[in-house]
Design a protein that fits this description.
The chain is an alpha+beta fold. Among the domains are: about 80 residues; about 100 residues, no CATH class; about 110 residues, Glucose Permease (Domain IIA), CATH 2.70.70. The protein contains six helices and 15 strands. The strands form three sheets. Strands 4, 7, 8, 9, 10, 11, 12, 13, 14 and 15 form a ten-stranded antiparallel sheet that branches. The chain has a three-stranded antiparallel sheet with strand order 1-2-3. A hairpin with a 6-residue loop joins strand 5 and strand 6. Helix 1 packs antiparallel against helix 3. The radius of gyration is 62 Å and the shape is elongated. About 10% of the residues have low confidence.
């Protein structure tokens, strides 16, 4: 067998020709570069596979050896842990036994402590009783020595107290007499005011029985263009003069509340422009009694005056007029009065009228406004809840809500306000006017 390398092919993989010769025959085998590359690749692959297998085998053996060593170490550690657990169990049993013994000793000591405390308290009680007995004995001896001096001092003080008591009794009798005198004067003044108002309304009844013209005519004589005989001039003039005086007194009392009576009722003026001839009515149409316009308007005005207090029990906290604002301390004007009472106290209407507003109004909080007619209205602010509605007719002292602290308020109270032609007036003047106007006339 002879291998020859021809000139064809590359240097790295030239074409190889293998001649096979025997005695009887000969043959040639040509190895192309591709076959050479394939064979070299196969050889390299086999070599790599062998190397990988060898390396893998070595690594596996090492891993197995490491695993076996780890298992051995784990078994050794497990045996050690079991030994430690057994040791800890023995220690736990010993500790439990010691604990039981300690608890038994503690119970015994607690019993001993209790018994010692009882003995100590008994000893302290005996000691205190002995000390008290000793102090009482000392005190009794001291009191025996001071009893005489105390007796003398007590006698002197008793005499002095007796003299002071006699003077106080005499002074009390004088004060009682003075109080009785003042109460009698007050009752006389109150009776005088009530008699004045009763006389005024009796005057109204008297005017009703007189002819309407006699109470309304001015005091000076008028020119009569009639054949009818004139009424007695003296009687008509005296009745008219008395009526003018009564109206003037009523105007003065109403003006003291701040009401502009001339603005409310111009017909209450002293003299209005009137005239014309006198014509006597027929006898068949002559009324037995007739109420003048002035007295009717005056009675209507008195009935519409809010003279009561909106709360049954209250305390005045802030008056009408200038004051310092309770929140910022600046000067302000208070358009009503503040009346404080317990929370949820009932709030009543101070006069009969019609509810014109019931709701929330800015700083007033929950508010109720009532129109009493004749330009007079009342406002009740800072309510907790109102129980009336707009358009509802309410009577005097009828409940309209509950006292609260809604709106700009620093505590539970009701802001009570009286408006006359939309101008605020002092409610205290109206409340004071109730003392001189009898309840029957309202």
């Amino acid at each position: 067998m002879v291998a020859e390398t021809p000139s064809r092919g590359s240097r790295l993989f030239p074409e190889i020709c293998i001649n096979l010769r025997t005695d009887s025959r000969s043959a040639q085998i040509f190895l192309s570069p591709a076959a050479q590359i394939a064979a070299a690749s196969a050889v390299v692959a086999v070599a790599l596979a062998v190397c990988y297998f060898v390396v893998s085998r070595i690594g596996y053996q090492r891993a197995v050896a490491n695993t076996e060593a780890a298992v051995v170490r784990a078994e050794t550690a497990n045996a050690d842990l079991q030994d430690e657990v057994a040791s800890l169990r023995d220690k736990l049993a010993i500790a439990a036994r010691d604990r039981q013994q300690a608890e038994a000793r503690s119970s015994a000591l607690a019993g001993e402590v209790d018994s010692l405390r009882g003995i100590l308290s008994a000893a302290e009680t005996r000691l205190r009783s002995a000390q008290d007995g000793r102090s009482r004995a000392r005190q009794s001896r001291a009191e025996q020595g001071q009893s005489q001096s105390r007796l003398e001092t007590t006698t002197k003080r008793l005499q002095q107290v007796t003299a002071d008591l006699d003077r106080a009794l005499s002074k009390r009798d004088r004060l009682r007499a003075r109080i009785a005198e003042l109460e009698q004067k007050h009752s006389q003044l109150d009776a005088a005011h009530r008699q004045k108002w009763t006389g005024l309304f009796h005057l109204a009844e008297l005017i009703e029985t007189e002819p309407a013209q006699s109470a309304a005519d001015p005091p000076w004589p008028e020119t009569l263009i009639s054949d009818a005989p004139p009424e007695p001039e003296d009687q008509a003039r005296s009745v008219a003069q008395f009526a003018r005086q009564a109206v003037a007194e009523i105007r003065r009392l109403l003006a003291s509340t701040g009401l502009n009576v001339d603005r409310l009722f111009p017909q209450l003026g002293q003299d209005r422009g009137r005239g014309g001839p006198f014509v006597a009515p027929p006898k068949s149409d002559q009324p037995n009694g007739m109420t003048p316009d002035k007295m009717e308007e005056l009675r209507s005005l008195i009935k519409s005056l809010p003279l009561s207090v909106p709360l049954d029990y209250s305390q005045l906290e802030s008056r009408f007029g200038p004051r310092h604002d309770p929140f910022n301390g600046r000067s302000s004007f208070h358009t009503g009065i503040d009346l404080s009472a317990p929370y949820m106290s009932p709030v009543h209407a101070t006069a009969g009228g019609t509810v014109t507003y019931a709701g929330y109004r800015s700083d007033y909080g929950k508010v109720v406004e009532i129109d009493h007619g004749n330009g007079i209205a009342t406002v009740y602010g800072h309510l907790h809840r109102y129980i009336v509605s707009v358009g509802q007719r309410v009577a005097e002292h009828e409940q309209i809500g509950f006292l609260g602290s809604s709106g700009r308020s620093s505590g539970p109270h009701v802001h009570y306000e009286i408006l006359v032609n939309d101008e605020p007036q002092d409610p205290e003047k109206f409340i004071g006017l109730a003392r001189v106007i009898p309840a029957a006339d309202r």
